[in-house]
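Quick one, tokens below. Sequence please?
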């Protein structure tokens, strides 16, 4: 089956492969694209994450629950999860989008992942879509520092390094591609003392830095 590796990663095989194909199709490629599935996926994602947080964080007040959910369903987090799935390799894009780096653009990756959730819902049911979402999100949520709810990734990384009495990270643009609104920045985040270097790509330097910082933060938290 086409995209078998992706199906194994999310733990779900499609009975209707055309739904998966549509979920992976950007509007630049054809009229049968993923935007309506994205709308559906956004709904199941928000509901699933809200329910999970409500059940698993009983001591968090409503304001913190809202901020935590927002940080989990935003473009940055969705793009990180999509990159972990190598989703960009499966996307159907126009030649122009491919040349401008669309397969690595956070907005396109985030939209495609939401469309994938919507496709699972239509192919199976709401409960199955929830299982796929939680399969990706539970490991991610496990690494969240509740004290950092509402703080961006660069701030979290800075505070983590300061707590360990380590120098602050450095951010360097290592590559730019595309032109105008289609420009993509790739930024390296370096923590020399820990020999850690991560990269992030985004439509602005700020977004790229945040993605790289999030990856560095996760790596450091996993260090023993």
């Amino acid at each position: 089956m086409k995209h078998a590796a992706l199906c194994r990663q999310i733990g779900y095989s499609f009975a209707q492969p055309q739904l998966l194909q549509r979920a992976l199709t950007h509007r630049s490629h054809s009229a049968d694209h993923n935007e309506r599935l994205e709308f559906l996926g956004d709904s199941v994602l928000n509901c699933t994450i809200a329910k999970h947080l409500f059940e698993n964080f009983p001591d968090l007040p409503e304001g913190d629950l809202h901020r935590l959910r927002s940080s989990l369903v935003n473009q940055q987090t969705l793009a990180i999860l999509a990159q972990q799935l190598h989703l960009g390799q499966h996307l159907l894009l126009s030649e122009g989008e491919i040349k401008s780096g669309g397969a690595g653009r956070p907005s396109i990756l985030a939209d495609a992942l939401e469309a994938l959730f919507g496709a699972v819902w239509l192919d199976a049911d709401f409960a199955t879509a929830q299982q796929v979402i939680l399969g990706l999100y539970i490991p991610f949520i496990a690494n969240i520092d509740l004290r950092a709810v509402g703080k961006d990734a660069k701030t979290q990384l800075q505070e983590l390094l300061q707590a360990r009495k380590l120098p602050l990270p450095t951010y360097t643009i290592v590559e730019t591609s595309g032109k105008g609104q289609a420009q993509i920045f790739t930024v390296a985040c370096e923590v020399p003392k820990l020999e850690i270097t991560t990269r992030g790509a985004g439509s602005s330097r700020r977004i790229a830095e945040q993605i790289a910082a999030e990856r560095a933060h996760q790596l450091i938290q996993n260090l023993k």
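The longest helix spans residues 35-56. The CA atoms of residues 180 and 203 lie 10 Å apart.
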